[in-house]
Amino acid sequence: MTTATSRHSERRISPVFLGILAVTAVTGWATWTGFAEQPGVAVFLFVTAAWVVSLCLHEYAHARTALHSGDISVGAKGYLTLNPLKYTHALLSIVLPVIFVIMGGIGLPGGAVFIERGRIQGRWRHSLISAAGPLTNVLFAVVCTAPFWLDALDGVPTDFRFALAFLALLQVTAALLNFLPVPGLDGYGVIEPWLSYNIRRQVEPFAPFGLLFVFALLWLPTVNGVFFDVIDSILKSLGISDFETYCGQELYRFWKGSNDFCSAAP
């Protein structure tokens, strides 16, 4: 009986996550209805809370896939409760991604849940565990962009449309960055089980610096331009224009003041 109760509590959705969901819902409603006196503040809270929700779901996908692949330890670690405070590196997984959104409008992938890989047999399972997180971002991006590629924007308030466009930008950048085959990122985790032992051993010391390496490359104007050209192309194929993502980011950064160019949008 105690074991059953413990396992149930290990999978119960955390009040912390429910609170973040509530903030997302309330600020999303405020953005939609124009209830907030300062729409930029509502958009900031809505996008930030929704972004944190996606981060939690990203890590939950890793943990849940690991559970079904043989790592039963993820429950005891609290990973199945969707509580971001239970993550191995809360700073990397929540705080830094939010800071990067505020500073640069880019979806920063973060590493959080510790999977006991020794409990898992089969290379396909290891690859699927790594892929589960960024696939969640892909799914989130599909949901955010659905009104655009379904031509279902009639009646959608402008501010809410801009907020969705910016949130979609974050999801697409997170998915693309995560799928890069760079040590320390999920993309490398997908291919790692298929590499030889010697290659994995040589690459392992570089894993903690993989994300830093990617962002150092993004500081190069040429690489940055190519990266965001790819992001823009993906978003355009989903019905979102540069104008909508730009205005979404401008509205998100409410502390900069109103943007007349975006305010005049229909």
TrEMBL record:
InterPro entries attached to this UniProt entry: Metallopeptidase_M50B, Rip2-like
Membrane topology recorded in Swiss-Prot or TrEMBL: Multi-pass membrane protein
GO biological process: proteolysis
Names of the cofactor(s): Zn(2+)
Keyword Nucleotidyltransferase assigned: no
Subcellular location: Cell membrane
UniProt KW Cell membrane keyword: yes
Superkingdom of this protein's organism: Bacteria
Keywords: Cell membrane, Hydrolase, Membrane, Metal-binding, Metalloprotease, Protease, Transmembrane, Transmembrane helix, Zinc
Membrane-spanning intervals of the chain: 16-35, 42-61, 90-115, 127-150, 162-185, 206-228
Molecular functions per Gene Ontology: peptidase activity
Family statement drawn from the similarity comment of this UniProt entry: Belongs to the peptidase M50B family.
Name the UniProt record assigns to this protein: Site-2 protease family protein
Originating species: Streptomyces venetus
